[in-house]
Every structure is written in C-alpha cells, then in structure tokens.
Amino acid sequence: MAMKLYFDPRSRAQVAKWMLDEAEVDYEIVPTLIREGAHKRPEFLKINPAGKLPALVDGRTRIFENAAICMYIAEKYPGKRLAPAVGTPERGRYLSLMVYSTAQLEPSMGDSLLKIKSNNSARGWTDFEQAKDAVERELGDGPYLFGAQFTAADVMIGSMLIWHRAFGGRTNRPKLDAYIHRLQARPKGMKFG
Ligand SMILES: N[C@@H](CCC(=O)N[C@@H](CS)C(=O)NCC(=O)O)C(=O)O
C-alpha cells in the first residue's frame, strides 16, 4: 500500500513532497485544502493533532512535522543515501541540523519576514542573521551540507531558505543564494503552488 501524503500545494507540505520525490518512492497525494478547512476536520486531527500540514501515513504509522517525515523517509530507504548512515560520525551533525531547521531556523525566518525584533536570548532561537551565519558555517564549501552528498538536511534547511525568498525575503548572502539556486535547479527540487 502506497504511503499517503496529506497535501495542499500552497503549504509546507511541499517540503515533504520534495523529500518523497528525491527518494523516488511511490506515494499517493491526499488533497487536504487549508482554504476548505480540511486540516481541522476530526479525521485529520487523528493523524496530526496540531491540525497542520503536512502529514504522512504509511500503513499503521502516522508522522507529522516535516522534519520527522524527512527523517522517516531517509531511514526507511537507506539505499537512497538521503542521510548519513547510523553509526557514522556525520550522523550527529545530521540529526542536529534536522532539529535546528525547525527549532531555530524556521522561527527566526518567521520573525524576519514578519519584521519581529527581539533581543531576548531566552527564546530558543537566534535572530535570522545569526541563523544565516550558522547555516553558512555548516555549508562550508558545499555544494551541500554534507559535501557532495545531498541529504534530508538540505531539504529541511534549504526549503526554509527557499520559502524565505518566495515570500520576498533576501538573504544578502551570495553563498546562501548560490545554495538556494543549486537546490532549486535539482530535477526534483521543491515546486510552489
Ligand atoms: N513545523 C510544521 C509547520 C506546519 C505548518 O505550519 N503548516 C501550515 C501550512 S504552511 C498549516 O498547516 N497551516 C494551517 C493552520 O495552521 O491552520 C512542519 O514543518 O510540519
């Protein structure tokens, strides 16, 4: 039975779709349109209690949050090499970047787009400038976060930067802009709308 991706094309469900497409696996799209309120219906809340997209169902397994979905796919299909293997030294950095993408990069990007300024370091995330510094450090000479190996970390970190640009944000960092273009030029790169 094919995995089911609960999907609205105008949502972050595009991130999970990008990951599934990079993995080249079979899945079925279950249209779940936000404008129709489909993500707040009781049957969907049984899959994602937060009432947000995306969600993925694989048999009796349900997964919500893009980072979890991406890690699940990378783990389910190790032959696709979309994550450093368990037991390798890179694995720790990979797990860190997956969580970082959503715990720090995503809210700092949101602050930046919404022009929210906060100097409160007690928040769990830095401002977007510092987040960009962190991503640049981790990217190093690239081309991807793990050198020549494209991974789920590029899907998560890259999609945040791509969203930021799509919503009119500018990084003012040539290295990050080149990274964004490289990701979007991939044949299975994230699409919008
Ligand atoms: N951190 C979550 C974010 C999910 C999220 O915010 N999804 C938005 C779509 S872009 C949503 O479902 N919004 C509708 C709502 O909250 O009512 C993830 O990566 O899965």
UniProtKB/TrEMBL annotation:
UniProt-listed InterPro entries: Glutathione-S-Trfase_C_sf (IPR036282), Glutathione_S-Trfase (IPR040079), Glutathione_S-Trfase_N (IPR004045), Thioredoxin-like_sf (IPR036249)
Residues in GST N-terminal domain copies: 1-81
PROSITE patterns listed in its UniProt record: GST_NTER (PS50404)
GO molecular function annotation: glutathione transferase activity
EC number: 2.5.1.18
One Pfam family named in its UniProt record: GST_C_2
Protein name from the UniProt record: Glutathione S-transferase
